[in-house]
Amino acid sequence: MTARSLIERLWRPIVFLAWIGLVASITLRPGRRNWLGFDQLTEWCLICGTRGSADAVLNVVMFAPLGFLIASRGRGVGAAFLCGLVGSVLIEGSQLFLAGRHAGLSDLLWNSSGALVGALLWQAAQRRIVSPRPGAVVGAAGFVAVSLLVGGVLLTPRQTGADYWGQWTPALGYMPQYSGRILDASLSGRPFPSYRLPAEPPHRRLLEDGWELRGSVVVGEAPRAVSPILSIYDRNRQEIVLLGAHRQDLVYRERTLGKAMRFDSPDVRILDGLVDVQPGDTMLIAARREGELCLQINDLHQCGSGVTPGRTWGLLLYLEGPPESFRRTLDLLWLMVLFSPIGFWAVGRRGWAWGLAIGFGGGALAVAVTPLVLPGIVEPLAGLLGVVLGAGGAAAGRWLNGETSTTAEPI
Predict the structure, then answer these.
(1) pLDDT at 409
(2) Is the distance from CB of 136 to CB of 128 less than 8 angstroms?
(3) Strands 249-254 and 268-270
(4) So where are the chain's domains?
(5) Taking Cα atoms as reference points, which of 289, 334, 287, 288 lies closest to residue 315?
(6) Distance between CA atoms of 299 and 202, rounded to whole angstroms?
């Protein structure tokens, strides 16, 4: 048996078993909440919950490998959709009996759609391998550019029209309460009390132009999760601005267009900014926006803070618990995956030139016109590595199919 035939025989079961294990670990692990009962099946909504859009996208992505595998066996998109539906029914039915899990009818649609998308991706990949077309890279690179632009737009600050309430070390229930205390606080030179803000409505005007939220704080114990020190919520209990602590980091969050559209949202931090203060010390913290975001702890200023293109994965599922080194690793992996289609679909010198120009040009445009901030050199290198890996995937596909030529008409 040749190496080619061995790989051809084994890659599908290996990928399928890995997919089954990943999906089971995500969907069939009991949670900490009580059993939700069968009444949840009477609720019908396509976008459910405060991060329903992000969950919908993740459900599509989660089932795409299943459709990809089914299509690789010569089945059509209809069979992939049907298998996705059956698999989703089994998962949602199991979740009905698991504490802390939510079984929703909308997941059937998103999971099945994910399998359909996976089948379409297999068909497109096969066309690339069997009859490569240089023009296809324009669509792949355009997808990369649009993804980064949309991610940047979703990070645009977005206030609400309801009245705003100031909060000093609030006890919100779903976040730990900060153990320190506030001595005084101000918002753009005005008093910032721990009740309804003393300003004429609409209160969103307080944050539409340049503003500064600052407070003098008696330092508390380092919290194990994000803990608000100064925050603004509206009367509908929507978070507008949060300035808090997490371990030794000063954390800043604000309501974005993505939040309004039910996506997740990354935070911004001064990493290890609280290392030099001890419980009982008095410190000054501040967040200021005048074109760019600036954070402050005592004499330490960090301006130009924000989310880089690599951190846009946080719009789908932001992980605030792991250390920053883990999140930075995800930044690089995200860019590698995002840019890999350029290398996969690039054919010929012109195809490579167009793909790289559109993909990286779209990233530069996103930094220029959206709240995304300029990354260091490592993130562009990760994107370039993703392009190389995509090209390697195309070469592996040609090898498995016995294809040797990649010639095609120029763009």
Answers:
(1) 45
(2) yes
(3) antiparallel
(4) 1-130, 133-155+317-411, 164-306
(5) 334
(6) 33
